[in-house]
Design goal:
With about 200 residues, the chain is of the alpha/beta class. The chain has a single domain, classed as 3-Layer(aba) Sandwich (Rossmann fold). Helices cover about 30% and strands about 15% of the residues. It contains 6 helices and 6 strands. The chain has helices spanning about 35-45, 65-80, 115-125, 135-145, 175-185, 190-200; strands at about 5-10, 45-55, 85-90, 130-135, 150-155, 170-175. Strands 3-2-1-4-5-6 form a 6-stranded parallel beta sheet, with helices on both faces. β2, α2 and β3 form a beta-alpha-beta unit. α1 (about 35-45) runs parallel beside α5. The protein is globular, with a radius of gyration of 16 Å. The model has no long low-confidence stretch (mean pLDDT about 95).
């Protein structure tokens, strides 16, 4: 059984401010509380993996290799604080794209769990000990479908709150630091134990 536990991180609107279709590293900054929150989570033994939809590739707004500059900027901002992103996973697909190679219905675009499931295999992750933090319910659904617990940061980016299977987050946080503190307070449980408790209520 895998032992590594992860906090999966949505990128835009969670880790960094959501600047639509941005690949300019000069416009990349960290959301408030991210450094403090990640430091708390690191002390609890979590590693960090970014899980991000990037439909701008399919829509022809930028090339997939341009995301490397964004990754490098995020790494620079975090590495100076002693924090490392283990790996980045991007979904470049969209059914309404203009670039044929990426215009398709895939299994990796959130709310589908494909990127998380791939990371679980690649990095030998204990998914039941892991969490997904995002800013919309699609993030929560992807995490829940993959088998981990999920947190949605209620920062205004989720405007519809459409309910459905797998779309209920474990916790709705006020900000990133609040999300991190909740995870730390519940890190001793696995999703299986948590589900057992909920079923008994």
């Amino acid at each position: 059984m895998y032992e590594r536990k992860v906090v999966f991180l949505d990128k835009d609107g969670t880790l960094i401010p959501d600047v639509p279709y941005n690949v300019n590293p000069d416009l990349v900054s960290l959301e408030p509380g991210v450094v403090e929150g990640l430091k708390l989570l690191k002390k609890e033994g979590y590693i960090f993996v970014v899980i991000s939809n990037q439909a701008g590739v399919a829509r022809g707004y930028f090339q997939i290799n341009e995301l490397e500059k964004v990754k490098q900027k995020i790494d620079l901002l975090l590495n100076t604080k002693g924090i490392e992103i283990e790996k980045y996973y991007f979904c470049p697909h969209h059914t309404d794209g203009k670039v044929q190679e990426y215009t398709l219905a895939c299994e990796c675009r959130k709310p589908k769990p494909g990127m998380i499931l791939q990371a679980t295999k690649d990095l030998e992750i204990s998914v039941v000990q892991s969490w997904m933090i995002g800013d919309i319910l699609h993030d929560a659904e992807a995490g829940n479908r993959a088998g981990c617990r999920s947190i949605v940061i209620n920062n205004g980016n989720e405007t519809e709150w459409v309910e459905g299977p797998f779309r209920t987050p474990t916790y709705i946080a006020e900000n990133f630091l609040d999300a991190a503190k909740f995870i730390c307070a519940n890190s001793h449980e696995t999703k299986e134990l948590n589900d057992t408790k909920l079923a008994a209520l």
